[in-house]
Design goal:
Radius of gyration: 28 Å
Distance between the termini: 72 Å
Helix content: 25-40%
Structural class: alpha+beta
Strand order of the largest sheet: 1-2-3-6-5
Order of helices and strands: HHHEEEEEE
Low-confidence stretches: none
Mean pLDDT: 86
Number of helices: 3
Shape: rod-shaped
Largest sheet: 5 strands, mixed, barrel
């Protein structure tokens, strides 16, 4: 009976397929670079380059692509980043429509006609309906506020 032996070409192709499957499953731009390195090593193996050269080529191609193309890919191809512009609320002035009191777990503020849950950046402070406040941070769906006379208020 013939003995099955894995040749370098099949090893590199298998590694490339494994990297592509992991990439497809995670969509994290983490293993695609190693799949390209494995493809280069496969080509080197077919061309008769020794195993040491294949390994060196695999790591060189993978690291070069990882170093120089990953930042570009993450910046322009990242499918999970959706900008909502809520970050623009920080340092803006809002009007209080319901008393903001952390102890009572109450408070609502309006910014450009949109109502937000609101809390104070310090538990000992409150704001009354009709007052103006400055947004110091956003936590989840709540605005963290400071009175306008405390412009350096920071979220805890």
């Amino acid at each position: 009976m013939a003995e099955f032996q894995i040749t370098p070409e099949f090893f590199w192709l298998g590694l490339m397929i494994l990297c592509l499957v992991i990439e497809a499953a995670t969509v994290g731009l983490a293993t695609i670079w190693f799949a390209a390195g494995a493809l280069a090593a496969t080509a080197a193996s077919v061309l008769g380059v020794g195993i040491l050269g294949q390994i060196l080529l695999f790591f060189t191609v993978s690291l070069v692509l990882l170093t120089f193309t990953r930042p570009f890919a993450l910046k322009y191809i990242s499918p999970h980043k959706i900008r909502t512009n809520y970050e623009d609320l920080v340092d803006q002035t809002v009007k209080i429509t319901e008393c903001v009191d952390n102890a009572a777990d109450s408070g609502t503020a309006v910014f450009h006609g949109q109502a937000w849950s609101a809390r104070m950046y310090r538990d000992d402070l409150t704001l009354k309906e009709g007052e103006l406040a400055k947004v110091t941070a956003i936590k989840g769906v709540k605005l963290i506020l400071a009175p306008l006379n405390e412009p350096d208020g920071k979220a805890e």
